[in-house]
Each structure stands twice: as structure tokens, then as C-alpha cells.
């Protein structure tokens, strides 16, 4: 298992543990175990978690659903060090040791600096010498492969790769909708990594599920060409068709998603030239619609002082805009605010914007959402 991504030449499916099924506000461990079994039975073994996923419970689920139930040599675990939890040098080792304990392992197969980007996150990793620390952990056998997940600019990526040639792999957000996104800039990041021949792990291949739930006319364009194949399978095949991509993460939260994705990779076919053209047409139509590019990572939710479920509010707004439907989204919203804060409850503290990997102007977007959803209450 020491060989990078098992030495596979083609892309494989990774099980992202950020959006696990829940029951009564907690991870539904029985369902997670069933999904892990289906994933492993398909000959797949890459599990991706992080210190902050599910409030830390995702790493604990690794221990319960995977480590306690399978021999260590049969699976690989990737997790991440969060810059925003590091306030002094001792925090780095403290967090790492806590992760080993949570996951119930003696080493991590893949370890990443989480969400490297221009500004505070990257500065924190440099200030606390985390790149050198990562190599030290590798020398001690506590990390097998060291890399980072990335949400920054192309210029910073070039700088990091020049200063830190020890990095073995990089995880980037990439999907056909974000290929030319001026904020995400997936295409540019991909080309930089290809030029350096650095293996890539892909996150958000289905863009937080939005590419699995297309407008009916866009979905028809795909199903007319490949009947019976889901929109999600097209998004995954887009990423898998790119040279240099070694692992494609999917945050699977249902058995249906798991089965569909396994089916895609069991008989993985690169996109044909005709299919690439169809994808490009779908992308152009999507980009003409005024939607909010939220991937529902929920980093903004944990620290919100008003307990606003921001991704769900943005999903509601997008549904209204894409489907010209107000009744169902507003009904959903009324149920949501029985448990969480309204869009108009935002106090503009900025916590959400400081952690958003998509760099969204969350405060402004919540104001717009409030105008659509809160009616006469929006001014409160």
C-alpha cells in the first residue's frame, strides 16, 4: 500500500467522508458500514476524511466503520491538518495525535495540509513550518504520502510547487462547470500540475451534487446520448478522462449514490469527442443561469453565531432560479427555519466568508436570499 495511489495508471473512486448519512443529528453508522462494505466489495479502498468533517465525528467513523472491521493492509486513509485550528506550534502535533487516536491507526497513508489558499491558511502553514513537519512525520513512518488540498490562485500554486518539491500529490476542486470559473480556475490549476507531472486527487467532481441534479432540459441532453446513465456519471467520467488524475473523491451520502458511482468506475469509459462537445454545451447553458456556486461543504455553518444553514438557503435560491418554482423551495425554507436561523438573521460577522473555499460573498448573498425568502421579515 506504500505505492502512491496503489500504482494505478487510471483514475479510481475515493470515498469522501464529508457528507455521510445522518440519523437524529448524528452519523448513521449502520448505513455507513453498509456503504463501506459495498465500496470495499467493489475492490476500492481510498477513504478521505478531515479533522473538521462532521464536527470531528467523520474521523471517529473511520475507526468504527473501517479500521475495526477490516485488516489495515486492505484500506488507505487520507486526512488533513486544518490551518484555522493552529494557534501555536504545539497545536500541530496535538491535532495530528488526536487524529491518529480518532481514526484508530498508527499511520496515515495520505496526509494533507487542508485548504491551502492565498492569505491566512497558507501563511499559517509556512509560519508553523508545516511542510517540513509533514516530511518529518513521513520519515518517522506516521505518514506514507504527503500533499495538500488547494483552493488558491494559480500563481500561489506555482510558488508552492517551486518552494516545496517534496510534495507528492495535490488535491484540487475540478469539474466541468468550474473549468473556466474565474474564482476556482480548475483548468489553470490542472494544467500547472500536469506540467509538473504531479498526481492529482479531485474533489467536488459533481460540484456538491449540483451536477447530479441538472435542469430537466440539460439532463435530457445527456440521457439522449447515453440512456440509463446518470448526470453524475458524466461528471465523474469528465474528470477520469483527464491525464494525471489518480483519485476522484465523491462525498457519497446515500446507497443509491454509492451504487451509481461504483457502476461508473466498474466499466469506466473515457468521454468520446462527441460527449465532450455535449458536456461543453451543457456547461455553457448552466453558466448562463444566475446561480450561487456553493458546494455545500458546510465550513460556514459550524461557526455561524446565528445557526444559519447557509448551504441549504443557497440551494433553495438556486432551485427557485433554475426551475422557476417558488412553492416547493419556500415550503422547504419554512421547514428549515423552524430549526435554524433565517437568512435575515445574519449579523454580518464575516466568519462564513473567512472559511468559504469558493470565496463567495456570503453576507451579500444572504441579503439577496432574504429578499426572496423572508418577505416582510427580511428587514428584521
Describe the structure.
With 380 residues, this protein is α/β, with parallel strands linked by helices. It has two domains: 4-287, Alpha-Beta Barrel (TIM Barrel), CATH 3.20.20.100; 299-379, no CATH class. It has 16 helices and ten strands. The strands form two sheets. The protein has an eight-stranded parallel barrel with strand order 1-4-5-6-7-8-9-10, surrounded by six helices. It has a two-stranded antiparallel ribbon with strand order 2-3. Strand 7, helix 6 and strand 8 (169-173) form a beta-alpha-beta unit. The chain is globular, with a radius of gyration of 20 Å. The N and C termini lie far apart (56 Å).
Which key features would you list for this structure?
TIM Barrel, two-stranded antiparallel ribbon, 2 domains, 44% helix, 16 helices, alpha/beta
Topology readout:
Layout (H helix, E strand, L loop, with lengths): L11 E5 L5 E2 L2 E2 L1 H13 L4 E3 L8 H11 L8 E7 L6 H15 L4 E9 L3 H8 L2 H10 L3 E8 L3 H10 L5 E5 L12 H10 L4 E4 L12 H10 L5 H10 L4 E6 L4 H12 L6 H15 L11 H4 L7 H14 L3 H10 L14 H5 L6 H12 L7
Parallel strand pairs: 1-4, 1-10, 4-5, 5-6, 6-7, 7-8, 8-9, 9-10
Antiparallel strand pairs: 2-3
Helix pairs in contact: 1-2, 1-10, 8-11, 9-10, 13-14, 13-16
Amino acid at each position: 500500500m506504500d505505492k502512491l495511489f496503489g500504482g494505478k495508471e487510471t483514475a479510481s473512486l475515493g470515498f469522501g467522508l464529508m457528507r455521510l448519512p445522518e440519523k437524529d443529528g448524528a452519523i448513521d453508522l449502520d448505513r455507513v458500514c453498509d456503504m463501506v462494505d459495498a465500496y470495499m466489495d467493489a475492490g476500492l479502498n481510498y477513504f478521505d476524511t478531515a479533522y473538521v468533517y462532521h464536527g470531528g465525528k467523520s474521523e471517529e467513523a473511520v475507526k468504527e466503520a473501517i479500521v475495526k472491521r477490516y485488516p489495515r493492509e486492505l484500506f488507505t486513509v487520507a486526512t488533513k491538518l486544518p490551518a484555522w485550528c493552529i494557534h501555536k506550534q504545539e497545536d500541530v502535533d496535538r491535532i495530528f495525535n488526536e487524529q491518529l487516536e480518532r481514526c484508530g491507526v498508527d499511520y496515515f497513508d495520505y496526509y494533507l495540509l487542508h485548504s491551502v489558499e492565498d492569505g491566512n491558511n497558507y501563511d499559517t502553514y509556512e509560519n508553523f513550518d508545516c511542510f517540513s513537519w509533514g516530511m518529518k512525520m513521513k520519515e518517522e513512518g506516521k505518514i506514507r504520502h504527503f500533499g495538500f488540498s488547494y483552493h488558491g490562485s494559480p500563481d500561489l500554486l506555482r510558488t508552492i510547487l517551486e518552494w516545496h518539491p517534496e510534495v507528492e500529490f495535490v488535491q484540487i476542486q475540478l469539474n466541468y462547470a468550474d473549468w473556466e470559473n474565474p474564482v476556482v480556475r480548475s483548468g489553470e490549476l490542472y494544467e500547472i500540475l500536469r506540467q509538473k507531472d504531479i498526481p492529482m486527487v479531485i474533489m467536488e467532481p459533481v460540484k456538491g451534487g449540483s451536477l447530479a441534479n441538472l435542469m430537466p432540459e440539460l439532463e435530457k441532453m445527456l440521457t439522449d446520448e447515453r440512456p440509463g446513465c446518470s448526470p453524475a456519471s458524466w461528471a465523474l467520467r469528465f474528470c477520469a478522462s483527464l491525464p494525471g488524475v489518480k483519485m476522484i473523491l465523491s462525498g457519497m451520502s446515500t446507497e443509491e449514490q454509492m451504487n451509481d458511482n461504483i457502476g461508473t468506475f466498474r466499466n469506466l469509459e473515457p468521454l468520446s469527442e462527441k460527449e465532450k462537445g455535449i458536456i461543453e454545451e451543457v456547461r455553457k447553458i448552466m453558466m448562463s443561469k444566475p446561480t450561487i456556486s456553493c458546494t455545500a461543504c458546510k465550513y460556514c455553518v459550524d461557526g455561524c453565531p446565528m445557526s444559519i444553514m447557509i448551504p441549504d438557503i443557497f440551494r433553495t435560491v438556486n432551485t427557485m432560479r433554475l426551475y422557476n418554482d417558488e412553492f416547493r423551495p419556500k415550503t422547504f425554507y419554512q421547514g428549515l427555519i423552524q430549526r435554524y436561523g433565517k437568512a435575515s438573521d445574519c449579523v454580518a460577522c464575516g466568519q462564513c466568508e473567512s472559511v468559504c473555499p469558493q470565496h463567495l460573498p456570503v453576507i451579500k448573498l444572504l441579503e439577496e436570499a432574504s429578499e426572496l425568502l423572508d418577505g416582510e421579515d427580511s428587514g428584521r
